[in-house]
Amino acid sequence: MKNPLPISDGEREAKESMSALAVDRDGNEILIGLSREESEWLLRYNRDYAGPPRVRASKEDKAKAKEIREKHNVARLLALGRKTSGITLQ
Q: pLDDT tens across 11-47, in order?
């Protein structure tokens, strides 16, 4: 992997345990099912708006975050299903 996501070792370990990380064809670490751009956007969004709200996210950003999270979670669950069933996709 030539371009890891800007996350701590603890975050990486947690995400790896949930099958949430992948590497794209260009060698960029990504959140599975997302582009590098979407991955970085979602990580920034989560950091900016996690915990007690200091600044509230716009309705547009909330909707975008929901859409990106759903895309990521579907891909993550599919990967877990393939992993546990032994199915490999070419």
A: 999 999 999 999 999 999 999 999 999 999 999 999 9
DSSP character for 3? B
pLDDT classification of 52: cutoffs 50, 70, 90: confident
Contact of 63 with 5, CB cutoff 8 Å: no
Burial annotation 17-31 (CB, 10 A radius, 16+ → b, else e): eebbbbeeeeebbbb
Prediction pTM value = 0.86
The structural domains of the chain, with segments of one domain joined by +, span 9-85
* Burial annotation 50-89 (CB, 10 A radius, 16+ → b, else e): eeeeeeeeeeeeeebbeebeebbeebbeebeeeeeeeeee
Question: Residue 89's pLDDT band (boundaries 50, 70, 90)?
Answer: low
Q: Which amino acid is at 67?
A: E
- In degrees and rounded to multiples of 5, residue 54 shows phi and psi of -90, -45
